[in-house]
Structure formats: C-alpha cells, structure tokens
Specification:
- The structure is a single chain.
- By secondary structure, this protein is of the alpha/beta class.
- The longest helix is centred in the middle third of the chain and has 15 residues.
- It has a domain of 173 residues: P-loop containing nucleotide triphosphate hydrolases (Rossmann fold, 3-Layer(aba) Sandwich).
- 35% of the residues lie in helices and 29% in strands.
- A six-stranded mixed β-sheet has the order 6-9-10-3-11-12, sandwiched between helices. A four-stranded antiparallel β-sheet has the order 2-1-4-5, with helices on one face.
- Helix 3 runs parallel beside helix 5 and helix 5 runs parallel beside helix 6.
- The chain is globular and about 55 Å long.
- A hairpin with a 2-residue loop joins strand 11 and strand 12.
- The model has no long low-confidence stretch (mean pLDDT 89).
C-alpha cells in the first residue's frame, strides 16, 4: 500500500492551470524518479505536496498515511513525515546547522529534545553520512558551496527521519563531486522506512541513485511510467520521443 497517494490532482497559480490531473503513488522503501522538460509541472507538484500557498488545488486529493492532507498547513505535513529538499536552499546567517536541526526536531515533538539525546542523534547522523562534525557549527547555507548546501539537506533528512522525501531538482547546477554527495547520502538513508521521489531533468543523478520506478511528466500530467530503463530511453531519445509515444496511443 502506498504511503503517499496523489489522486487526479489539478493545481493552478494565478490564472494558469499547471497540473492537469496527476496520479502518482509512492511507498516507503521505494525510490521514484519524476522526469520531464522545463515547464512540465514537476516543481509545481513538489511545492503543492508540501503546501506552498502560491499553488491552489482546484480538484483532486493528496493522501498521506491514509489521511487527506490536501488542505493541511506546511508544518502539519512536515510533522506528519513529508520532507522537501529544495532546488535552491536558503541561507540563514547566525543560525548554525546544529541549532537549526535541533529546532526542526523540536517542531515535531511535544517536549524539547534533551541536549545529550540530540548530541547522540547528531553524532550518529554525521557518522552515517561521513560529515565532518565542524560542519554542523557553521551558519546554515551561509557561504556554502552547492555541494555543502546539499550535504546540509541530506543531514536534515537523517535527523528528521521523514517517511517520504521529495527532492526537487536537487542535482541542478551541481558538479560531479557534489552530485555524489547527494547520491551517497540518499543511498545511505534509503531503506524500508523511507520513500524518495527524485525530481530531475536529466538521467545523470540516476546513475548514482537507482530508482525502482520512473515517471515522465509533460503538460501537467504523467504521460509515461516504467522501470529504470525508461530513464535510459529518455537519455538516448529525448523528450520528443514522449510526444511520439503519445501520438501512437
């Protein structure tokens, strides 16, 4: 049974409909890749799933762990176990990575986490992800390279332990070393308790993160779904091939 179900989702922003009936299911233990050209609606879907106020759901449902969260506030979705890795993470000068993580944990708890418990949790996470402990003392994303920003997000995933993580074009603008940081982090955290939706333009991140299923979005709908071979087909044939498949159908 899927933990996240998107049912016939229609979304608009201002006067334009962007999503035109998206259906998608993701379960814990699965890695899905969502691919598509610019303007196809991929980032709109990611932002809608986490409740961005600029995107209006006009029909359809978002079901998470059996509950309808279509109208839920962003913090309620995050507390329930959804996580969004941003394409362009913001900087927060004056707030260390460690303090940010502690505040994020406390936002999901009834009682604040104790200092000792948090230190142990942080130590386990940095060891798992092979992160230098000094990294957690730096101001969040302030002066960070692209790879360091992604490392901070992966560290957030390790600490917060979401059930479903949505990675919105997290490979955008990354060099090969930074790309490996992201991939190694996701692979280290992947397992039966975590489902991942990787949103990307290109196949290159999928050389490091192996998806169970691949979906292709175009014109606000998922037009094709398949196994990992679908990503390879797109790499060799391009998105024009999707149009040809539509014409055949």
């Amino acid at each position: 049974m899927a933990d996240l179900e998107i049912r016939d989702l229609h979304v608009r922003t201002e006067d334009r409909e962007i999503l035109k009936g998206v259906n998608l299911s993701v379960a814990r233990g699965e890695i899905h890749a969502l691919m598509g050209p610019n303007g196809s609606g991929k980032s709109t879907l990611a932002n809608t799933l986490l409740g961005h106020p600029s995107y209006e759901v006009t029909s359809g449902q978002i079901i998470f762990n059996g509950q309808d969260i279509t109208a839920a506030e962003p913090h309620e979705r995050a507390k329930a176990g959804l996580f969004l890795a941003f394409q362009y993470p913001v900087s927060i000068p004056g707030v260390s990575v460690a303090n940010f993580l502690r505040m994020a944990i406390n936002a999901k708890r009834e009682e604040p986490i104790g200092v000792k418990e948090f230190r142990e949790m942080l130590s386990q996470a940095v060891e798992l992800l092979d992160v230098d402990r000094s990294f957690t003392s730096r101001a969040l994303n302030d002066g960070f390279s692209g790879g360091e920003k992604k490392r901070a997000e992966i560290l957030q995933m390790a600490i917060l332990k979401p059930e479903i993580a949505i990675m919105d074009e997290t490979d955008s603008g990354l060099d090969i070393d930074a790309l490996r940081v992201v991939a190694e982090g996701v692979n280290a955290l992947a397992g039966p308790d975590l489902g991942v939706l990787v949103i990307t333009h290109y196949n290159r991140i999928l050389n490091y993160i192996k998806p169970h299923k691949v979906h292709v979005m175009k014109d606000g709908r998922i037009q094709l779904s398949g196994g990992p071979e679908l990503a390879l087909e797109l790499e060799s044939r391009g998105y024009d091939w999707v149009r040809e498949q539509e014409a055949v159908r």
